[in-house]
Please model this.
Amino acid sequence: MPSTSKTEYDPAKRVLSVWFVASGKRYDFEEVPAETYKRLSVGVCQRPLFQRPHSQSLPLSPRS
Model:
């Protein structure tokens, strides 16, 4: 699983921003419910976000 260096969440826009260690790039996941972010931030997710089946993935827009 990729290592992340930082995450931020904008509840008004429902955007989760994740910075990856290896590339240093930021990726924005759109339409993320606040509950999903809360669960990620406390490590309660049953499956890591980046290992879910494609049908369960979140909309993604890479940022540099």
